[in-house]
Amino acid sequence: MDMTITFPGGARVDAEVGPFTIGTDQPPQGGGEGSAPMPFTLFLASIGTCAGIYVLGFCKQRGLSTDGIRIVQRSERDPRTGLVSRIGLDIEVPADFPAKYHDALIRAADQCAVKKHLEHPPAFDVRTVVN
């Protein structure tokens, strides 16, 4: 999958992928306008939303309602490095959600492709190309 990264002005940086433009910005204290999420925020959101796709698919396959289900994602940072050291996903379900599916929801969310890529990261090749 190819993406084109563009610089529409200020501290905004966009990713163009297929028919979509995914906008990012920095907060005012970082020199931006705060008009869109920061790139790292989108990265973190991709983890929770990817897990959510698998939870949604699990529920749809079984005819289970997703009303009242939500995933709460928490990130912990290593104070020495400032890097995220742990990410927790709590799948909150309503009281009437069948208990026999609780562990299966965890297994479904565990299939998240973003999570799997973090567990087995790709190699990076960053270079300058003159057009």
- Contiguous runs where pLDDT drops below 50 for at least 5 residues: none
Domains (count): 2
Q: What best-fitting shape do the alpha-carbon axes yield?
A: elongated
Overall residue-averaged pLDDT value: 97
Helix/strand/pairing category: alpha+beta
CATH superfamily heading of the largest domain: K homology (KH) domain
The biggest beta sheet reads: 3 strands, antiparallel
Calculate Rg over CA atoms: 18 Å
The CATH topology of the largest domain is GMP Synthetase, Chain A, domain 3
> How many helical stretches?
3
Measured between the Cα atoms of the first and last residue, the distance is: 21 Å
Q: Mind telling me the CATH class of the largest domain?
A: Alpha Beta
| Proportion of residues in β-strands | 25-35%
Relative helix content:
25-40%
Strand order in the largest sheet: 1-2-3
Order of helices and strands: EEEHEEHH
Name given to the CATH architecture of the largest domain? 2-Layer Sandwich
How many strands appear in the DSSP assignment? 5
